[in-house]
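Hello K.,

You asked for the raw outputs rather than the summary table, so here they are, unedited. I folded two proteins back to back in the same session to keep the settings identical. This is the first:
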Amino acid sequence: MVETIVSLELAVDERLIIKKNRLAPANISGKEKRICIVTGLHGDELEGQYVCYKLIKEIQENIEYLNGIVDIYPSLNPLGIDSIHRGMPTFDLDMNRIFPGSESGAMAEHVAAKIIEDIDGADMCIDLHASNIFLREVPQVRISENIKDKLVPYAKLLNMDFIWVHPETTVLESTLTYSLNNKNIPALLVEMGVGMRITKEYGDQLVEGIFNLMKELNIWTGTVASVRQPIISTEKEVNFINAKASGIFMPSVKHLSEIKKGERVGEIFSSLTGVAEEQVISPCDGVVFTLREYPVVYEGSLIARVLGGAK
Protein backbone atom coordinates (compact mmCIF):
# COMPACT_ATOMS: atom_id res chain seq x y z
CA MET A 1 0.00 0.00 0.00
CA VAL A 2 1.38 3.40 -0.99
CA GLU A 3 1.19 5.89 1.89
CA THR A 4 2.09 9.57 2.17
CA ILE A 5 4.32 10.38 5.13
CA VAL A 6 4.98 14.08 4.38
CA SER A 7 2.95 16.55 2.32
CA LEU A 8 3.81 20.26 2.43
CA GLU A 9 2.78 23.24 0.35
CA LEU A 10 5.40 24.86 -1.87
CA ALA A 11 5.36 27.93 -4.06
CA VAL A 12 3.32 28.12 -7.29
CA ASP A 13 0.64 25.65 -6.15
CA GLU A 14 3.14 22.76 -5.81
CA ARG A 15 3.61 20.29 -2.97
CA LEU A 16 6.52 18.40 -1.48
CA ILE A 17 5.24 14.83 -1.12
CA ILE A 18 7.25 11.93 0.30
CA LYS A 19 5.69 8.47 0.01
CA LYS A 20 6.44 4.92 1.05
CA ASN A 21 5.20 1.56 -0.15
CA ARG A 22 4.24 -0.76 2.71
CA LEU A 23 4.25 -4.47 1.89
CA ALA A 24 2.65 -6.67 4.53
CA PRO A 25 1.08 -10.14 4.95
CA ALA A 26 -2.65 -10.51 4.42
CA ASN A 27 -3.26 -11.17 8.10
CA ILE A 28 -1.51 -8.86 10.57
CA SER A 29 -1.13 -9.85 14.22
CA GLY A 30 0.67 -6.69 15.34
CA LYS A 31 3.76 -8.64 16.35
CA GLU A 32 5.42 -8.70 12.92
CA LYS A 33 8.98 -7.49 12.53
CA ARG A 34 9.54 -4.53 10.23
CA ILE A 35 12.40 -3.55 7.92
CA CYS A 36 12.73 -0.16 6.22
CA ILE A 37 14.57 0.42 2.94
CA VAL A 38 15.31 4.12 2.44
CA THR A 39 17.07 5.85 -0.43
CA GLY A 40 17.02 9.05 -2.46
CA LEU A 41 18.25 11.39 0.29
CA HIS A 42 20.67 12.75 -2.30
CA GLY A 43 18.99 13.52 -5.60
CA ASP A 44 22.01 12.59 -7.72
CA GLU A 45 22.27 9.08 -6.22
CA LEU A 46 20.03 6.80 -8.27
CA GLU A 47 21.29 3.28 -7.53
CA GLY A 48 18.50 2.81 -4.98
CA GLN A 49 15.74 3.39 -7.51
CA TYR A 50 16.34 0.05 -9.20
CA VAL A 51 16.74 -1.72 -5.83
CA CYS A 52 13.32 -0.46 -4.68
CA TYR A 53 11.67 -1.53 -7.94
CA LYS A 54 13.24 -5.01 -7.91
CA LEU A 55 12.50 -5.60 -4.24
CA ILE A 56 8.84 -4.59 -4.52
CA LYS A 57 8.37 -6.65 -7.68
CA GLU A 58 9.84 -9.84 -6.19
CA ILE A 59 7.91 -9.52 -2.94
CA GLN A 60 4.61 -8.91 -4.75
CA GLU A 61 5.20 -11.91 -7.02
CA ASN A 62 5.89 -14.15 -3.98
CA ILE A 63 3.71 -12.46 -1.36
CA GLU A 64 2.87 -15.79 0.31
CA TYR A 65 6.40 -15.85 1.77
CA LEU A 66 6.12 -12.44 3.42
CA ASN A 67 6.00 -12.88 7.18
CA GLY A 68 6.67 -9.30 8.28
CA ILE A 69 6.40 -5.70 7.15
CA VAL A 70 8.63 -4.12 4.50
CA ASP A 71 8.49 -0.34 4.22
CA ILE A 72 10.18 1.05 1.10
CA TYR A 73 10.96 4.76 0.79
CA PRO A 74 12.34 5.31 -2.75
CA SER A 75 12.65 9.09 -2.68
CA LEU A 76 13.28 10.96 0.58
CA ASN A 77 14.38 13.99 -1.45
CA PRO A 78 11.93 14.03 -4.39
CA LEU A 79 12.77 17.61 -5.35
CA GLY A 80 16.44 16.66 -5.64
CA ILE A 81 15.72 13.58 -7.76
CA ASP A 82 13.39 15.52 -10.06
CA SER A 83 16.04 18.21 -10.65
CA ILE A 84 19.15 15.96 -10.54
CA HIS A 85 20.35 17.97 -7.56
CA ARG A 86 22.27 16.40 -4.67
CA GLY A 87 20.65 18.54 -2.00
CA MET A 88 17.19 20.02 -1.60
CA PRO A 89 16.80 22.59 -4.40
CA THR A 90 16.03 26.23 -3.51
CA PHE A 91 17.12 25.63 0.07
CA ASP A 92 20.67 24.62 -0.98
CA LEU A 93 20.57 22.04 1.80
CA ASP A 94 21.98 18.53 2.18
CA MET A 95 19.06 16.45 3.45
CA ASN A 96 21.43 14.06 5.18
CA ARG A 97 22.81 16.81 7.44
CA ILE A 98 19.63 17.83 9.30
CA PHE A 99 18.53 14.72 11.21
CA PRO A 100 16.84 14.07 13.57
CA GLY A 101 15.12 17.32 12.64
CA SER A 102 12.32 19.11 14.48
CA GLU A 103 8.58 19.13 13.75
CA SER A 104 8.40 22.79 14.78
CA GLY A 105 11.52 23.76 12.79
CA ALA A 106 11.97 25.01 9.24
CA MET A 107 10.51 22.95 6.40
CA ALA A 108 13.52 20.67 5.90
CA GLU A 109 13.81 20.03 9.65
CA HIS A 110 10.10 19.22 9.78
CA VAL A 111 10.52 16.75 6.91
CA ALA A 112 13.46 15.08 8.66
CA ALA A 113 11.49 14.73 11.90
CA LYS A 114 8.52 13.16 10.08
CA ILE A 115 10.84 10.64 8.37
CA ILE A 116 12.34 9.63 11.73
CA GLU A 117 8.86 9.40 13.24
CA ASP A 118 7.66 7.08 10.48
CA ILE A 119 10.69 4.77 10.70
CA ASP A 120 10.64 4.71 14.51
CA GLY A 121 10.02 1.24 15.93
CA ALA A 122 11.48 -0.65 12.97
CA ASP A 123 13.64 -3.70 13.63
CA MET A 124 16.11 -2.82 10.85
CA CYS A 125 16.78 -0.01 8.38
CA ILE A 126 18.91 -0.05 5.21
CA ASP A 127 19.99 3.47 4.21
CA LEU A 128 21.08 3.14 0.58
CA HIS A 129 23.42 5.62 -1.10
CA ALA A 130 25.52 5.82 -4.24
CA SER A 131 28.84 7.55 -4.69
CA ASN A 132 29.17 10.91 -6.47
CA ILE A 133 29.90 11.28 -10.20
CA PHE A 134 33.65 11.24 -9.56
CA LEU A 135 34.15 7.88 -7.81
CA ARG A 136 32.79 4.35 -8.22
CA GLU A 137 32.37 2.28 -5.07
CA VAL A 138 32.08 -1.49 -4.84
CA PRO A 139 28.94 -2.57 -2.91
CA GLN A 140 29.80 -1.93 0.72
CA VAL A 141 28.42 -1.30 4.20
CA ARG A 142 29.91 1.49 6.29
CA ILE A 143 29.73 1.07 10.07
CA SER A 144 30.92 3.24 12.94
CA GLU A 145 33.54 1.53 15.08
CA ASN A 146 31.63 2.05 18.32
CA ILE A 147 28.67 -0.11 17.13
CA LYS A 148 30.51 -2.66 15.01
CA ASP A 149 29.78 -5.57 17.36
CA LYS A 150 26.05 -4.96 16.98
CA LEU A 151 25.93 -4.24 13.23
CA VAL A 152 28.68 -6.29 11.54
CA PRO A 153 26.75 -9.59 11.93
CA TYR A 154 23.80 -8.02 10.07
CA ALA A 155 26.10 -6.46 7.47
CA LYS A 156 27.61 -9.86 6.68
CA LEU A 157 24.16 -11.05 5.56
CA LEU A 158 23.75 -8.30 2.92
CA ASN A 159 25.80 -9.92 0.13
CA MET A 160 28.19 -6.96 -0.02
CA ASP A 161 31.81 -7.09 -1.17
CA PHE A 162 33.20 -4.94 1.61
CA ILE A 163 32.41 -3.80 5.17
CA TRP A 164 34.19 -0.60 6.09
CA VAL A 165 34.41 -0.14 9.86
CA HIS A 166 35.60 3.42 10.34
CA PRO A 167 36.46 5.58 13.38
CA GLU A 168 33.54 7.14 15.21
CA THR A 169 35.10 10.59 14.75
CA THR A 170 34.36 10.45 10.98
CA VAL A 171 30.62 9.94 11.53
CA LEU A 172 28.36 12.99 11.21
CA GLU A 173 25.79 13.07 13.99
CA SER A 174 23.26 14.81 11.73
CA THR A 175 22.87 11.88 9.31
CA LEU A 176 19.85 9.60 9.13
CA THR A 177 21.86 6.46 9.91
CA TYR A 178 23.44 7.99 13.02
CA SER A 179 20.10 9.28 14.27
CA LEU A 180 18.42 5.89 13.86
CA ASN A 181 21.23 3.99 15.56
CA ASN A 182 21.11 6.58 18.35
CA LYS A 183 17.45 5.59 18.83
CA ASN A 184 18.48 1.90 19.00
CA ILE A 185 17.10 1.16 15.55
CA PRO A 186 19.78 -0.93 13.78
CA ALA A 187 20.64 1.02 10.62
CA LEU A 188 23.12 -0.05 7.95
CA LEU A 189 24.58 2.52 5.56
CA VAL A 190 25.05 0.91 2.14
CA GLU A 191 27.07 2.68 -0.56
CA MET A 192 27.65 1.39 -4.07
CA GLY A 193 28.09 2.42 -7.69
CA VAL A 194 28.46 5.92 -9.05
CA GLY A 195 26.37 9.10 -9.04
CA MET A 196 23.67 9.74 -11.67
CA ARG A 197 23.83 6.13 -12.89
CA ILE A 198 22.27 2.75 -12.11
CA THR A 199 24.49 -0.34 -11.96
CA LYS A 200 22.08 -3.23 -12.42
CA GLU A 201 24.45 -5.96 -11.23
CA TYR A 202 25.07 -4.08 -7.98
CA GLY A 203 21.33 -3.66 -7.46
CA ASP A 204 20.66 -7.37 -8.06
CA GLN A 205 23.46 -8.22 -5.64
CA LEU A 206 21.98 -6.06 -2.87
CA VAL A 207 18.41 -7.30 -3.42
CA GLU A 208 19.62 -10.88 -2.84
CA GLY A 209 21.30 -9.66 0.33
CA ILE A 210 18.18 -7.90 1.59
CA PHE A 211 16.14 -11.08 1.14
CA ASN A 212 18.84 -12.97 3.02
CA LEU A 213 18.70 -10.45 5.87
CA MET A 214 14.89 -10.60 5.91
CA LYS A 215 15.08 -14.37 6.15
CA GLU A 216 17.32 -14.05 9.22
CA LEU A 217 14.86 -11.60 10.78
CA ASN A 218 11.91 -13.95 10.02
CA ILE A 219 10.35 -11.34 7.74
CA TRP A 220 10.73 -13.63 4.71
CA THR A 221 10.12 -17.39 4.67
CA GLY A 222 10.98 -18.15 1.03
CA THR A 223 14.25 -19.59 -0.19
CA VAL A 224 17.17 -17.19 -0.58
CA ALA A 225 20.41 -17.31 -2.53
CA SER A 226 23.72 -17.93 -0.81
CA VAL A 227 25.64 -14.70 -0.19
CA ARG A 228 29.31 -13.81 -0.55
CA GLN A 229 31.65 -13.35 2.38
CA PRO A 230 32.69 -9.68 2.54
CA ILE A 231 36.13 -8.28 3.19
CA ILE A 232 36.10 -6.45 6.54
CA SER A 233 38.33 -3.41 6.98
CA THR A 234 39.10 -4.02 10.67
CA GLU A 235 41.63 -6.60 9.58
CA LYS A 236 43.64 -4.15 7.43
CA GLU A 237 44.29 -0.46 6.82
CA VAL A 238 42.47 1.77 4.32
CA ASN A 239 44.98 3.70 2.20
CA PHE A 240 43.96 6.80 0.22
CA ILE A 241 45.66 7.56 -3.11
CA ASN A 242 45.48 11.19 -4.24
CA ALA A 243 46.66 12.77 -7.47
CA LYS A 244 49.97 14.62 -7.40
CA ALA A 245 49.36 16.23 -10.80
CA SER A 246 46.44 17.61 -12.81
CA GLY A 247 45.23 16.10 -16.08
CA ILE A 248 43.23 13.12 -17.35
CA PHE A 249 43.27 9.91 -15.29
CA MET A 250 43.23 6.54 -17.05
CA PRO A 251 43.01 3.52 -14.72
CA SER A 252 44.97 0.33 -15.27
CA VAL A 253 43.18 -1.69 -12.54
CA LYS A 254 39.60 -2.75 -11.91
CA HIS A 255 37.39 -2.75 -8.84
CA LEU A 256 38.17 -5.42 -6.27
CA SER A 257 41.37 -6.29 -8.13
CA GLU A 258 44.38 -7.19 -6.06
CA ILE A 259 47.37 -4.91 -6.38
CA LYS A 260 50.96 -5.03 -5.14
CA LYS A 261 52.96 -2.22 -3.59
CA GLY A 262 54.66 -0.30 -6.41
CA GLU A 263 52.23 -1.44 -9.13
CA ARG A 264 50.41 1.07 -11.31
CA VAL A 265 46.88 2.13 -10.45
CA GLY A 266 46.84 4.22 -13.63
CA GLU A 267 48.36 7.31 -15.15
CA ILE A 268 47.54 11.00 -15.38
CA PHE A 269 48.34 12.59 -18.72
CA SER A 270 48.07 15.95 -20.46
CA SER A 271 45.89 15.92 -23.57
CA LEU A 272 47.58 19.15 -24.71
CA THR A 273 51.24 18.12 -24.54
CA GLY A 274 50.94 14.33 -24.86
CA VAL A 275 53.00 13.94 -21.70
CA ALA A 276 52.27 11.50 -18.86
CA GLU A 277 52.25 13.81 -15.86
CA GLU A 278 52.13 11.07 -13.22
CA GLN A 279 52.27 7.30 -12.87
CA VAL A 280 49.85 6.61 -10.01
CA ILE A 281 51.42 3.91 -7.85
CA SER A 282 49.91 1.80 -5.10
CA PRO A 283 51.54 2.46 -1.70
CA CYS A 284 50.79 -1.07 -0.45
CA ASP A 285 49.64 -4.58 -1.24
CA GLY A 286 45.87 -4.75 -1.14
CA VAL A 287 42.49 -4.61 -2.85
CA VAL A 288 41.08 -1.62 -4.75
CA PHE A 289 37.58 -0.87 -3.46
CA THR A 290 37.19 2.74 -4.61
CA LEU A 291 38.29 3.93 -8.06
CA ARG A 292 38.12 7.24 -9.87
CA GLU A 293 35.27 7.28 -12.40
CA TYR A 294 35.38 10.86 -13.66
CA PRO A 295 38.63 11.22 -15.62
CA VAL A 296 39.43 14.93 -15.12
CA VAL A 297 41.58 15.31 -12.00
CA TYR A 298 43.47 18.03 -10.19
CA GLU A 299 46.30 17.87 -7.71
CA GLY A 300 44.84 16.36 -4.55
CA SER A 301 41.88 14.62 -6.24
CA LEU A 302 41.05 11.22 -4.76
CA ILE A 303 42.08 8.51 -7.24
CA ALA A 304 41.49 5.30 -5.28
CA ARG A 305 41.17 3.65 -1.90
CA VAL A 306 43.12 0.47 -1.29
CA LEU A 307 42.47 -1.90 1.58
CA GLY A 308 45.82 -3.33 2.55
CA GLY A 309 48.83 -3.14 4.82
CA ALA A 310 50.55 -0.04 6.11
CA LYS A 311 52.37 2.24 3.68
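The second followed immediately with the same parameters:
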Amino acid sequence: MKILVPVKRVIDYNVKPRVKADGSGVDLANVKMSMNPFDEIAVEEALRLKEAGKAEEVIAVSVGPAKAQETLRTALAMGADRAILVETDEAVEPLAVAKILKAIADEEAPGIVMLGKQAIDDDSNQTGQMLAALMGRPQGTFASKVEVEGDAVTVTREVDGGLETVKLTLPAIVTTDLRLNEPRYASLPNIMKAKKKPLDVKTPGDFGVDIAPRLTVLKVVEPPVRQAGEKFADVDALLAKLKEKGVVA
Protein backbone atom coordinates (compact mmCIF):
# COMPACT_ATOMS: atom_id res chain seq x y z
CA MET A 1 0.00 0.00 0.00
CA LYS A 2 1.11 3.54 -0.79
CA ILE A 3 0.44 6.50 1.49
CA LEU A 4 0.22 9.93 -0.11
CA VAL A 5 1.06 12.80 2.24
CA PRO A 6 0.42 16.39 1.09
CA VAL A 7 2.61 18.97 2.86
CA LYS A 8 2.46 22.77 2.75
CA ARG A 9 5.17 25.39 3.08
CA VAL A 10 4.02 28.00 5.61
CA ILE A 11 5.46 30.71 7.84
CA ASP A 12 7.19 29.02 10.76
CA TYR A 13 4.88 28.81 13.77
CA ASN A 14 7.45 30.63 15.95
CA VAL A 15 7.36 33.70 13.69
CA LYS A 16 4.90 36.56 14.17
CA PRO A 17 3.46 37.38 10.71
CA ARG A 18 3.64 40.96 9.45
CA VAL A 19 0.97 42.59 7.32
CA LYS A 20 2.13 44.43 4.19
CA ALA A 21 2.00 48.21 4.39
CA ASP A 22 -0.69 48.38 1.71
CA GLY A 23 -2.83 45.75 3.47
CA SER A 24 -2.77 43.45 0.43
CA GLY A 25 -1.54 40.41 2.35
CA VAL A 26 1.09 38.98 4.67
CA ASP A 27 4.71 40.02 4.16
CA LEU A 28 6.82 36.92 3.39
CA ALA A 29 10.10 38.74 2.70
CA ASN A 30 12.99 37.37 4.77
CA VAL A 31 10.58 35.28 6.87
CA LYS A 32 11.50 31.79 8.06
CA MET A 33 9.33 29.16 6.37
CA SER A 34 8.79 25.54 7.40
CA MET A 35 6.46 22.58 6.97
CA ASN A 36 2.94 23.05 8.27
CA PRO A 37 2.96 21.39 11.75
CA PHE A 38 -0.19 19.35 11.10
CA ASP A 39 1.36 18.02 7.87
CA GLU A 40 4.53 17.11 9.76
CA ILE A 41 2.35 14.95 12.04
CA ALA A 42 0.82 13.33 8.94
CA VAL A 43 4.29 12.50 7.58
CA GLU A 44 5.28 10.97 10.92
CA GLU A 45 2.16 8.82 11.10
CA ALA A 46 2.64 7.60 7.51
CA LEU A 47 6.23 6.63 8.33
CA ARG A 48 5.11 4.77 11.46
CA LEU A 49 2.60 2.79 9.40
CA LYS A 50 5.35 1.94 6.93
CA GLU A 51 7.70 0.87 9.73
CA ALA A 52 4.91 -1.33 11.12
CA GLY A 53 4.65 -3.10 7.77
CA LYS A 54 1.27 -1.60 6.89
CA ALA A 55 2.59 0.37 3.89
CA GLU A 56 5.35 -0.06 1.34
CA GLU A 57 5.86 3.51 0.16
CA VAL A 58 5.32 7.04 1.45
CA ILE A 59 5.01 9.80 -1.15
CA ALA A 60 5.14 13.46 -0.15
CA VAL A 61 3.46 16.03 -2.40
CA SER A 62 3.31 19.82 -2.24
CA VAL A 63 1.60 22.54 -4.26
CA GLY A 64 3.49 25.83 -4.23
CA PRO A 65 6.58 27.76 -5.38
CA ALA A 66 9.95 26.26 -6.26
CA LYS A 67 11.13 26.87 -2.69
CA ALA A 68 8.58 24.28 -1.53
CA GLN A 69 11.22 21.74 -2.59
CA GLU A 70 12.88 22.51 0.74
CA THR A 71 9.72 21.40 2.55
CA LEU A 72 9.58 18.22 0.49
CA ARG A 73 13.25 17.52 1.22
CA THR A 74 12.39 17.76 4.91
CA ALA A 75 9.72 15.09 4.42
CA LEU A 76 12.24 12.96 2.50
CA ALA A 77 14.80 13.42 5.28
CA MET A 78 12.22 12.23 7.79
CA GLY A 79 11.85 9.04 5.77
CA ALA A 80 9.46 9.56 2.84
CA ASP A 81 10.51 7.60 -0.25
CA ARG A 82 9.89 10.16 -2.98
CA ALA A 83 8.24 13.51 -3.56
CA ILE A 84 6.17 15.42 -6.10
CA LEU A 85 6.11 19.22 -6.38
CA VAL A 86 3.28 20.85 -8.31
CA GLU A 87 5.00 24.15 -8.92
CA THR A 88 3.13 27.44 -9.10
CA ASP A 89 3.81 30.94 -7.82
CA GLU A 90 0.10 31.71 -7.57
CA ALA A 91 -1.90 31.40 -4.36
CA VAL A 92 -3.88 28.17 -4.63
CA GLU A 93 -7.22 27.80 -2.87
CA PRO A 94 -8.26 24.56 -1.08
CA LEU A 95 -10.58 23.37 -3.86
CA ALA A 96 -7.84 23.67 -6.49
CA VAL A 97 -5.41 21.85 -4.18
CA ALA A 98 -7.99 19.08 -3.69
CA LYS A 99 -8.42 18.73 -7.46
CA ILE A 100 -4.65 18.47 -7.96
CA LEU A 101 -4.38 15.89 -5.18
CA LYS A 102 -7.22 13.88 -6.74
CA ALA A 103 -5.37 13.81 -10.05
CA ILE A 104 -2.18 12.64 -8.33
CA ALA A 105 -4.09 10.06 -6.29
CA ASP A 106 -5.71 8.74 -9.48
CA GLU A 107 -2.21 8.15 -10.89
CA GLU A 108 -0.57 6.80 -7.73
CA ALA A 109 -3.56 4.83 -6.34
CA PRO A 110 -2.62 5.23 -2.64
CA GLY A 111 -4.44 3.24 0.02
CA ILE A 112 -4.47 6.30 2.30
CA VAL A 113 -4.14 10.01 1.62
CA MET A 114 -3.00 11.40 4.97
CA LEU A 115 -2.85 15.16 5.44
CA GLY A 116 -2.90 17.70 8.22
CA LYS A 117 -6.38 18.79 9.27
CA GLN A 118 -5.55 22.41 8.40
CA ALA A 119 -2.72 24.77 7.51
CA ILE A 120 -1.69 27.34 10.10
CA ASP A 121 -1.54 30.17 7.54
CA ASP A 122 -5.19 30.20 6.47
CA ASP A 123 -6.77 27.69 8.91
CA SER A 124 -9.22 26.68 6.17
CA ASN A 125 -9.65 23.03 7.27
CA GLN A 126 -11.18 22.22 3.86
CA THR A 127 -8.76 20.35 1.62
CA GLY A 128 -9.12 16.89 3.17
CA GLN A 129 -12.91 17.00 3.15
CA MET A 130 -13.03 18.35 -0.40
CA LEU A 131 -10.63 15.64 -1.58
CA ALA A 132 -12.78 12.92 -0.01
CA ALA A 133 -15.87 14.34 -1.74
CA LEU A 134 -14.15 14.59 -5.13
CA MET A 135 -12.81 11.03 -4.90
CA GLY A 136 -15.91 9.53 -3.33
CA ARG A 137 -13.78 8.04 -0.54
CA PRO A 138 -14.55 7.64 3.18
CA GLN A 139 -12.87 10.14 5.46
CA GLY A 140 -11.66 10.23 9.04
CA THR A 141 -10.88 13.79 10.12
CA PHE A 142 -9.12 15.17 13.22
CA ALA A 143 -7.41 11.83 13.88
CA SER A 144 -5.80 11.29 17.30
CA LYS A 145 -5.21 7.57 16.63
CA VAL A 146 -4.87 5.58 13.40
CA GLU A 147 -4.81 1.79 13.08
CA VAL A 148 -4.67 -0.16 9.81
CA GLU A 149 -5.92 -3.74 9.76
CA GLY A 150 -6.37 -5.55 6.47
CA ASP A 151 -8.47 -3.52 4.06
CA ALA A 152 -9.71 -1.04 6.68
CA VAL A 153 -8.39 1.81 8.79
CA THR A 154 -9.78 2.66 12.24
CA VAL A 155 -9.58 6.34 13.11
CA THR A 156 -10.20 7.81 16.56
CA ARG A 157 -11.46 11.35 16.02
CA GLU A 158 -11.33 14.34 18.35
CA VAL A 159 -14.79 15.91 18.42
CA ASP A 160 -16.45 18.51 20.65
CA GLY A 161 -18.04 15.87 22.88
CA GLY A 162 -14.89 13.77 23.32
CA LEU A 163 -13.67 10.96 21.06
CA GLU A 164 -15.39 9.18 18.19
CA THR A 165 -14.07 6.03 16.51
CA VAL A 166 -14.85 5.28 12.86
CA LYS A 167 -13.82 2.33 10.69
CA LEU A 168 -13.15 3.18 7.05
CA THR A 169 -12.76 0.84 4.10
CA LEU A 170 -9.56 1.52 2.16
CA PRO A 171 -8.77 3.55 0.14
CA ALA A 172 -9.59 6.43 2.48
CA ILE A 173 -8.73 10.01 3.42
CA VAL A 174 -7.37 10.76 6.92
CA THR A 175 -6.61 14.21 8.38
CA THR A 176 -4.38 14.45 11.44
CA ASP A 177 -4.76 16.35 14.72
CA LEU A 178 -2.08 17.54 17.14
CA ARG A 179 -2.28 14.67 19.62
CA LEU A 180 -1.72 11.91 17.08
CA ASN A 181 2.06 11.74 17.53
CA GLU A 182 5.31 13.62 18.10
CA PRO A 183 7.17 14.08 14.77
CA ARG A 184 10.75 12.88 14.59
CA TYR A 185 13.76 15.03 13.84
CA ALA A 186 15.62 14.34 10.61
CA SER A 187 19.16 13.13 11.29
CA LEU A 188 22.11 14.57 9.38
CA PRO A 189 22.74 11.31 7.44
CA ASN A 190 19.08 11.22 6.40
CA ILE A 191 19.22 14.89 5.36
CA MET A 192 22.13 14.01 3.07
CA LYS A 193 20.31 10.95 1.70
CA ALA A 194 17.21 13.06 1.03
CA LYS A 195 19.15 15.07 -1.56
CA LYS A 196 19.39 11.95 -3.72
CA LYS A 197 15.80 10.81 -3.39
CA PRO A 198 13.54 11.38 -6.42
CA LEU A 199 11.57 14.62 -6.54
CA ASP A 200 9.36 15.14 -9.59
CA VAL A 201 8.30 18.65 -10.58
CA LYS A 202 4.92 19.14 -12.26
CA THR A 203 2.57 22.04 -12.94
CA PRO A 204 -1.19 22.39 -12.36
CA GLY A 205 -1.57 22.33 -16.14
CA ASP A 206 -0.10 18.80 -16.24
CA PHE A 207 -3.19 17.67 -14.34
CA GLY A 208 -5.64 19.88 -16.23
CA VAL A 209 -6.55 21.85 -13.10
CA ASP A 210 -7.57 25.51 -13.28
CA ILE A 211 -6.17 27.27 -10.21
CA ALA A 212 -7.77 30.66 -10.91
CA PRO A 213 -8.90 32.07 -7.55
CA ARG A 214 -12.60 32.24 -6.70
CA LEU A 215 -12.07 34.56 -3.76
CA THR A 216 -10.67 38.08 -3.69
CA VAL A 217 -8.82 39.38 -0.63
CA LEU A 218 -9.99 42.94 -0.10
CA LYS A 219 -7.76 43.82 2.82
CA VAL A 220 -5.59 42.26 5.51
CA VAL A 221 -5.27 44.05 8.86
CA GLU A 222 -3.62 43.38 12.18
CA PRO A 223 -5.99 42.28 14.97
CA PRO A 224 -7.01 45.18 17.24
CA VAL A 225 -4.83 45.78 20.27
CA ARG A 226 -6.55 44.64 23.44
CA GLN A 227 -7.50 47.57 25.67
CA ALA A 228 -6.31 47.69 29.25
CA GLY A 229 -8.84 46.68 31.91
CA GLU A 230 -10.16 48.85 34.71
CA LYS A 231 -10.25 48.16 38.44
CA PHE A 232 -13.07 49.31 40.73
CA ALA A 233 -13.04 49.81 44.45
CA ASP A 234 -16.48 48.26 45.01
CA VAL A 235 -19.60 46.89 43.32
CA ASP A 236 -21.30 50.28 43.25
CA ALA A 237 -18.46 51.78 41.23
CA LEU A 238 -18.61 48.83 38.81
CA LEU A 239 -22.37 49.20 38.34
CA ALA A 240 -22.00 52.93 37.77
CA LYS A 241 -19.47 52.26 35.01
CA LEU A 242 -21.68 49.63 33.39
CA LYS A 243 -24.64 52.04 33.43
CA GLU A 244 -22.43 54.71 31.87
CA LYS A 245 -21.62 52.38 29.00
CA GLY A 246 -25.28 51.37 28.66
CA VAL A 247 -24.59 47.70 29.46
CA VAL A 248 -27.15 47.68 32.30
CA ALA A 249 -30.15 49.89 32.95
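The chain has a mean pLDDT of 93.

Happy to rerun anything if the numbers look odd on your end.

Regards,
P.
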